[in-house]
């Protein structure tokens, strides 16, 4: 990890720093990391926790332990004396992505959004590629973000997240090319005839997938195309073009970026049921027709205490088609306020969900829909619910984190 020269330099600068009086660092602020020159002493009650080589953070209540400096890989890069400060949380888990890879998955990842990237402590954890080996832009590659005006394409916000993932050595799941929601009204209410809408949709898919060619591990080409009863959702694409729009979009995506895996993504296809049957039947039909389709995306927006018991059976059924399956937007919401018992139930739920994926060789990745309750979409849509993610709103790991790690161990 560190050469002896780097370690010596690091230690001598630490000793120099230690000779001067240091101010204390407030909770949640940076207290260490390569190239960090500020104070490394956390305010009373907090411990300096290494999040990655570039960022250590003062976390309230961190179980601070002090031990002699050694050449151990757990050394916090910038410390103030001949001792190191670390916490149980920082040293006991190798990180969810590291664990997932060791278990044979391609990645464990998180969604994120542009506005959140100005939050440095948030970004530091997101950028820790031992935790997250994959990012999904939560909004910035959607139609309203990329082609708000017909024929005028904007990629700035999507590019920011793709560049961040690249800098961190993380894969990107592209999200999403064709969806009825966050669809500009010029498309949804344009009154286009069949041929015109096909050409608009093909152009959109082609332009966006070409822009990101070679940078996307997998695209959610189609998102949420089914009703709960398994019939097709009556989006403008379905009502104008008919079922054929699905194959047209997939073919356009394949032509634009032949190396990206192409997915159809949906919610409430977690357990067995009419919607899952419809997904299975459609993908079987596409395969039979020679339409390019590589994966089924299972969003997995779940409710704690009500997670279906048929997850594994359902996903095995999908995988039997020969396609990959991925959990693409996992969160498990709780009715607020949280209690220890509810967090324990949520941890059990996370463990079961992750274990069901791990049990299926074709289940290749798990993405949580952002990693912290601070930026979850849930409370804005379900007013009495929230706390759906493995890190709380203060970026502290919840029992769900340990449960995921256990299922991946
Ligand atoms: O709704 C949860 C997810 C369901 N599956 C598809 C996903 O794409 C979807 O993500 C969410 C985003 O996480 C939200 O951030 O999609 C929502 C919209 O359907 C996103 O919410 C929107 C807000 O509704 C807008 O007011 C806001 O301008 O986010 C926009 C950008 O911040």
Question: Which tags fit this structure?
Answer:
409 residues; single chain; eight-stranded parallel barrel; binds ligand G2I; alpha/beta; three-stranded antiparallel β-sheet; disordered N terminus
Question: Explain this structure to me?
Answer:
This protein has 409 residues and is α/β, with parallel strands linked by helices. Helices cover 37% and strands 22% of the residues. It has helices at residues 4-19, 88-92, 96-102, 120-126, 143-146, 156-168, 185-188, 194-211, 236-241, 244-256, 274-288, 311-319, 340-358, 378-381, 399-408; strands at residues 24-25, 30-32, 41-42, 46-52, 55-60, 64-68, 83-87, 107-112, 134-137, 171-179, 218-223, 261-266, 295-298, 301-303, 324-335, 363-368, 385-386. The strands form 4 sheets. It has an 8-stranded parallel beta barrel, surrounded by 6 helices. It has a 3-stranded antiparallel β-sheet with strand order 2-5-4. The chain has a two-stranded parallel ribbon with strand order 1-3. Helix 8 (194-211) packs parallel to helix 10 and helix 13 runs parallel beside helix 15. The site of ligand G2I has 8 residues, from loops.
List the helices and strands and how they pair.
Elements (H helix, E strand, L loop, with lengths): L3 H16 L4 E2 L4 E3 L8 E2 L3 E7 L2 E6 L3 E5 L14 E5 H5 L3 H7 L4 E6 L7 H7 L7 E4 L5 H4 L9 H13 L2 E9 L5 H4 L5 H18 L6 E6 L12 H6 L2 H13 L4 E6 L7 H15 L6 E4 L2 E3 L7 H9 L4 E12 L4 H19 L4 E6 L9 H4 L3 E2 L12 H10 L1
Parallel strand pairs: 1-3, 8-9, 8-16, 9-10, 10-11, 11-12, 12-13, 13-15, 14-15, 15-16
Antiparallel strand pairs: 2-5, 4-5, 6-7, 15-17
The structure holds ligand G2I.
The site of ligand G2I has 8 residues, from loops.
């Amino acid at each position: 990890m560190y050469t002896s020269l780097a370690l010596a330099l690091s230690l001598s600068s630490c000793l120099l720093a230690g000779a001067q009086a240091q101010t204390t660092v407030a909770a949640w602020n940076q207290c260490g990391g390569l190239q960090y020159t500020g104070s490394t002493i956390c305010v009373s009650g907090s411990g300096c926790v290494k999040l990655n080589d570039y960022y250590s953070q003062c976390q309230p209540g961190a179980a601070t332990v002090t031990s002699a400096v050694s050449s151990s890989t757990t050394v916090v890069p910038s410390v103030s004396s001949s001792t190191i400060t670390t916490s149980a949380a920082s040293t006991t888990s190798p990180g969810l992505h590291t664990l997932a890879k060791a278990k044979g998955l391609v990645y464990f990842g998180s969604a994120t959004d542009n506005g959140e990237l100005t939050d440095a402590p948030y970004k530091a954890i997101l950028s820790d590629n031992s935790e997250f080996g994959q990012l999904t832009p939560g909004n910035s590659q959607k139609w309203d973000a990329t082609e708000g005006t017909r024929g005028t394409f904007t990629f700035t916000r999507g590019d920011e997240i793709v560049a961040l993932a690249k800098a961190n050595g993380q894969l990107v799941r592209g999200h999403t090319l064709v969806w009825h929601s966050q669809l500009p009204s010029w498309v949804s209410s344009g009154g286009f005839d069949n041929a015109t809408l096909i050409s608009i949709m093909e152009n959109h898919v082609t332009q966006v997938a070409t822009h990101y060619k070679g940078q996307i591990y997998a695209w959610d080409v189609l998102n949420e195309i089914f009703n709960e009863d398994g019939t097709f959702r009556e989006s403008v694409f379905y009502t104008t073009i008919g079922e054929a729009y699905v194959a047209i979009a997939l073919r356009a995506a394949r032509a634009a970026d032949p190396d990206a895996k192409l997915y159809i993504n949906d919610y409430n296809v977690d357990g067995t049921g009419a919607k899952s049957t419809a997904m299975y039947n459609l993908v079987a039909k596409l395969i039979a027709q020679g339409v390019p389709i590589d994966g089924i995306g299972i969003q997995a927006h779940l409710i704690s205490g009500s997670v279906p018991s048929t997850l594994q059976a359902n996903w095995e059924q999908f995988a039997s088609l020969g396609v990959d399956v991925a959990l693409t937007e996992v969160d498990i919401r709780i009715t607020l306020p949280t209690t220890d018992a509810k967090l324990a139930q949520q941890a059990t739920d996370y463990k079961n969900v992750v274990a069901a994926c791990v049990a299926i060789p074709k289940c290749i990745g798990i993405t949580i829909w952002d990693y912290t309750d601070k930026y979850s979409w849930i409370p804005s849509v379900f007013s009495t619910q929230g706390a759906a993610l493995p890190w709380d709103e203060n970026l502290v790991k919840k029992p769900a984190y340990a449960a995921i790690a256990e299922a991946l161990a």
